[in-house]
Design a protein that fits this description.
The structure is a homodimer.
Chain A lengths: L5 H18 L4 H17 L1 H17 L4 H7 L3 H16 L7 E6 L5 E8 L2 E6 L4 H12 L3 E5 L5 H15 L8 E4 L4 H7 L8 E5 L2 H10 L12 E5 L5 H13 L8 E7 L4 H13 L3 E4 L1 H4 L8 E2 L13 E7 L2 H11 L4 E5 L3 H10 L4 E6 L16 E3 L7 E3 L5 E12 L3
Parallel strand pairs in A: 3-4, 3-6, 4-5, 7-8, 7-12, 8-11, 9-10, 9-11, 12-13
Antiparallel strand pairs in A: 1-2, 2-16, 14-15
Helix pairs in contact in A: 2-5, 2-6, 2-7, 3-7, 5-6, 10-11
Chain lengths: 421, 421
């Protein structure tokens, strides 16, 4: 155990809160320099970071973590270079602070402005991947927020060295206290953290369903999270064969372990049987195991197919497994998604504008992909630079959250002695 | 008791949820017609509304409610006309739905759009004033949302007739189920309502601190509320005497019972004693009772003054009572506001741009008023049309919330077979 107590947590949160007020006085140039200075620190301390990370990886092997978990935990020279590039992009991206989002002068001369400001103090609770610490710290700095970062115990040594590097790196340009590292490994401390009303303005959990559920149960501060990504691809009756195949493969196979990968394929019954079998074979050849409904089963069954059971339609496999269902109409596809979708990403392949519009109107998801892969629902792909998370709830932000989503707007009115009539 | 059960509540919430999907297919014209039709219904049924309201007012008198409460409860011909005018304005205001907030085409030809959509189903829990029902129903309709409206038992008869009128009025243009009335008088039903995860996308409580606290304690769905409005006016050393006096009087006296009225006056010690005494006298002549700190006391004391105690600085009087403190510097004023403010509205009178900027940077409030009255922090005054509430938390909305604040944005990407590389 770390010996880190609730009092330590509150102390760190208070330091962050105090620095969040000071942060408002700094300029974009200071924030840019601080972010670039983290980049320099990563480059200058690469060896030490890799050594610390190797200790975490060795412990993970001893604890028999899965290969996927160990992969997520592992830092390499290439991954650190990638982080450095992301930091450069975040620093160079347009400022999200101080803009006047709206302005008008009333007939009586009162100037009404709506100005963009930082939220204050953000808490991020993350599992496994230590690079999340760097991304989130940089986005918080970019948006003028202080941040509390609580990683998982698996990445204890990696997070400790990265945390110190970030704090030292920013200290020449911004208050060092703006970034606070909370040790991992203590779930009770997560519970205490999400109760810090008045100290944290927002908590963003990044992790599995268990973590999210626990946080929703205890949180007294605002939380933005995505519970899961159960994404569908619907092939309409008029779907172009080649496009549909390419997109289905991309959505399922390119990176099966992420939240914007496809988990269920819905196929209109009018699509040619031979084509459907060809598509399913292509998926199997790419290593995908199929769980099919009765109508698909009727087309084969082929060796390797399994019959889907009820739970399959609600399962986020995060693996090379796909449930496949034939639907009688776009309405049946929409109903299926409304029942089983997770408000993350839903895709349609069709050339019929009225069907596409109907799908868009009916489906409640943070991203609708039309004749495109579900994999595009990502802050980097959609032009936000890095992302601090993907929200599957509609309040404040819906979809990928970049620096701008860590800000809010408020009114400033300026008069010359104006009174209300 | 009403005999209204938790099952009834869930049934109504499900009807609202189902209609929120249907609502996406309607046009702005339908929404406008529905809102104007409520206006017509109020005019055509004025007598019945006033009779129902008179029953509530009579019961309130019997129950010995305060004069202020009875005033808030009472509907008059003039108030109904005012409501009709507000409905006309809401109907005529620009559409908040369907706008493309952002659009770019990637180098690979993928079109990325961020589109504005309704939140889904809103719950509003309100006390006393029955006209809130009409304002909120109209704003929900304008923004394409379904709404559950739960008023207080004091306005039982008024809310019942208004609810039916609204449902009947919109039924020719929109799904009748989009507006659901939940009977008041049962606090447990409020608790159940804020737990309807998956059915309600947002709950907005409008009421006293007790209601807000109870809702925050039990809520499982997102809540936007303002706990209280403890607004300060700070007179800097260079404050113009006449402007300061006019604004102080306006902020305190024009409508003392509302959340954007001033509760504490902070005065820089360099301001002329004679002027300060003159200002305090003007406030007293307007019926304001003063609770003053030691330094003000030293200027008098005058008959009628009371010495402020610690609780005064944290008290939202909502009445003609004012606490007054002399501060040694703008820093002391800022520290006082950071400690006692409620993130609602904070005002400064000064002509020094650097002091004004320092105040704006340091103060965390939904509206900063510079040389203007606190009373301007109001949706109508700031150009939103009607408001559904004022948020004193920063997530999603900070300050007055109009129809636009009942919407969110999401990504729609359109490709021609685009896959992620």
């Amino acid at each position: 155990m770390t010996g880190f107590t609730r009092d330590d947590l509150i102390h760190k949160a208070r330091l962050a809160k105090a620095s969040s007020v000071t942060l408002r006085r700094y300029r974009e140039e200071d924030r840019q320099r601080a972010i670039l200075s983290i980049r320099d620190a990563l480059a200058a301390n690469q060896q030490d970071i890799l050594v610390a990370n190797a200790r975490d990886v060795a412990a993970a092997r001893e604890n028999e973590l899965s290969a996927a978990m160990i992969d997520r935990l592992t830092l390499t020279e290439a991954r650190l270079r990638g982080l450095g590039e992301a930091l450069k992009e975040i620093a160079a991206s347009p400022s999200v602070l101080g803009q006047i989002e709206h302005e008008h002068t009333r007939a009586d001369g009162l100037l009404v402005q709506k100005k963009r400001i930082a939220l204050g103090v953000i808490g991020v609770i993350f599992e496994s991947r230590p690079n999340v610490l760097i991304d989130c710290a940089a986005l918080a700095i970019k948006s003028g927020n202080a941040i509390l970062l609580k990683g998982g115990s698996d990445a204890e040594h990696s997070n400790a060295i990265l945390g110190h590097l970030v704090q030292d790196a920013i200290a020449s340009f911004l208050p060092r206290d703006a970034v606070q590292i909370i040790p991992g490994g203590d779930r009770q401390m997560t519970v205490e953290m999400v109760k810090l009303v008045g100290l944290l303005d927002l908590v963003i959990p990044r992790g599995g369903e268990g973590l999210i559920r626990m946080i929703h149960e205890h949180a007294k501060v605002p939380v933005i999270a995505h519970a899961k990504g159960l994404c569908h691809l619907y092939l309409h009756a008029d779907a172009d064969f080649d496009k549909a195949r390419a997109i289905a493969l991309n959505a399922k196979v390119q990176r099966p372990s992420v939240c914007n990968a496809m988990e269920t394929l819905l196929i209109h019954q009018q699509l040619d049987d031979g084509y459907v079998l060809d598509l399913l074979q292509a998926l199997e050849e790419a290593g995908v195991r199929l769980r099919v409904d009765e109508r698909v089963w009727g087309l084969g069954p082929k060796p390797g197919w399994e019959q889907a059971v009820d739970e399959d339609w609600d399962t986020e496999y995060l693996d090379k497994i796909l449930s496949v269902r034939v639907v009688a109409s776009e309405d049946e596809a929409i109903d299926h998604i409304l029942k089983h979708g997770s408000h993350h990403t839903e895709a349609i392949i069709s050339n019929d504008p009225s069907v596409i519009q109907k799908f868009e109107d009916a489906i409640d998801a943070s991203c609708i992909a039309v004749n495109a892969s579900t994999r595009f629902n990502d802050g980097g792909e959609l032009g936000l630079g890095a992302e601090i998370g993907i929200s599957t709830t509609k309040l404040h932000a819906y979809g990928p959250m970049g620096a701008k989503e860590l800000t809010t707007t408020r009114f400033v009115v300026q008069g010359t002695g104006h009174c209300r009539v």
